[in-house]
Amino acid sequence: MTNAINTSMLGFVIGDAIGVPVEFLSRRELANHPVKSMRGYGSHNVEAGTWSDDTSMTLGTMKAIADTGMIDYKVIMDNFLSWAMGGEFTVDGDVFDIGITCRTAIIDYKETGCQPLEAGLTDIRSNGNGSLMRMLPIALYCHYRNISDEEMKEIVNNTSSLTHAHDISRLGCYLYVVFVRALLEGKSIEEAYEAMLQSDLLGYSEEAIKHYDRIFSRQLNDLTIDEISSSGFVVASLEASLWALLNTTSFEQAVLHSVNLGNDTDTIGAITGSMAALVYGFESIPSQWIDAIRNKDYLYGIVTNFTKIVED
After folding, report:
1. Residue 264 is assigned to a ligand binding site
2. pTM of the entire structure?
3. Does residue 291 have a known ligand-binding role?
């Protein structure tokens, strides 16, 4: 697994798995007992190398694209349903971590028979990171299929809206996708950040844009750790991931730095890992972390099929 798709996905899964055992722990608790390697058990009592909902929903999105050769929102949503209700796209059939907004949207989709793009929640309280955490396949698809910026924005907004349909969530997803796509084009961290700042925000509300002021101000890199939140709020999660990437110089440092922020450690670790893997490359990922990931054959199978489709 050495191409950009495999590398970014492996970085994502590793960040997820490293964060799982310490999810919900405070920054103070982790300062006293920092994560330095792949752990097991802890918050969810699972073996080391177990991935969570972040990877499951990402795999569900990847498989939908691999199976259809396109972005089919119904197939993506059906895969989410198979995951939430049937344990597909998990390590061992156990769905141990699912966000409230994702659960609500998926259940509504199942019980009401609504269209996929009508399932997402639109209230301002439903702006967790549950759509941001599954955007990596969308960035990869748009890059390798050479999708226009305008169409990319539509795809991002719609894919987020399957569960998170508020503009704050959709904008966070869009900024992440722009950043990752710039990295895929070979840009540096600084160049990718500038591409994100120069992205077309037409269509997003002023309210949503204002929530990302600290990113747009170009001051994120200079914030202290005490000024960084690591909550599940989509804005905080994107800020924390970018901040960890900007303030470290290796894949290992970036992932550990992000996870040791505490709280929503698996999602922030996964988002950071996906970006850091693209910046520093496959060789930067510690082999012992790769070895620890559970059910790799299943994971690699979906990623390989996705790669064949998007690179075709």
Report:
1. yes
2. 0.97
3. no
